[in-house]
Amino acid sequence: MSEVKISGLVEGGKATGGPPFGPALGPLGVNINGIIAEINSKTGQYAGIKIPVNVFVDTGTKAFRIEIGAPPTSALILKELGIQSGAKTKEETVGNITIDQIKNVVKAKETSLYGKDLADKVKQVIGTCNSMGVTIDGQKPREVIAKINKGELKL
């Protein structure tokens, strides 16, 4: 049994039989349309965001499995805010996100965030907000982290 791994970045729900997967899967003699349909099914919730995808094909049996990676935290924040990019300078503020929206990002990234509890994971996402020029409920990210650390903000 020999397994081949094919990796690529695809926009959520919009994989096609073209690159990166089609040309790599063709010589393996597998059902390309079936694989593409499964990728689109698994990534549809991330429409508009590039998602890392790995396809593993058993060259003997033609069986395959698909692993979907987590999109970047910054991409999820941009999607929540409905904007295209973060701040260009440290002084610029590009948007304001709510704690509930941050929890949505945490839920989407759950398996790839470090931390023992929700508060630790929320603080990681808030750190990304800080570097992107995004405020949280009208407050600077560092202020929100301080309130979480002091127990003033319950999650």
Structure overview:
This protein has helices at 22-25, 32-43, 73-81, 99-109, 118-132, 141-150; strands at residues 3-11, 50-58, 64-68, 95-97, 134-136. By secondary structure, it is an alpha+beta fold. Strand 2 (50-58) and strand 3 (64-68) form a beta hairpin. The chain is 39% helix and 19% strand. The strands form 2 sheets. The protein has a 3-stranded antiparallel beta sheet, covered by helices on one side. The chain folds into 2 domains: 3-68, Ribosomal protein L11/L12, N-terminal domain (Ribosomal protein L11, N-terminal domain, 2-Layer Sandwich); 73-150, Orthogonal Bundle (Arc Repressor Mutant, subunit A), CATH 1.10.10.250.
Write the layout of secondary structure elements.
Elements: E1 3-11, H1 22-25, H2 32-43, E2 50-58, E3 64-68, H3 73-81, E4 95-97, H4 99-109, H5 118-132, E5 134-136, H6 141-150
Parallel strand pairs: 4-5
Antiparallel strand pairs: 1-2, 2-3
Helix pairs in contact: 3-4, 4-5, 5-6
The average pLDDT is 93
CATH C-level class of the largest domain is Mainly Alpha
Number of domains: 2
Q: Could you state the order of secondary-structure elements as H and E?
A: EHHEEHEHHEH
Q: Strand content of the residues, in percent?
A: 15-25%
Could you list the spans in which at least 5 consecutive residues all have pLDDT below 50? Answer: none
By CATH, the superfamily of the largest domain comes out as Ribosomal protein L11/L12, C-terminal domain
Quaternary state of the chains: single chain
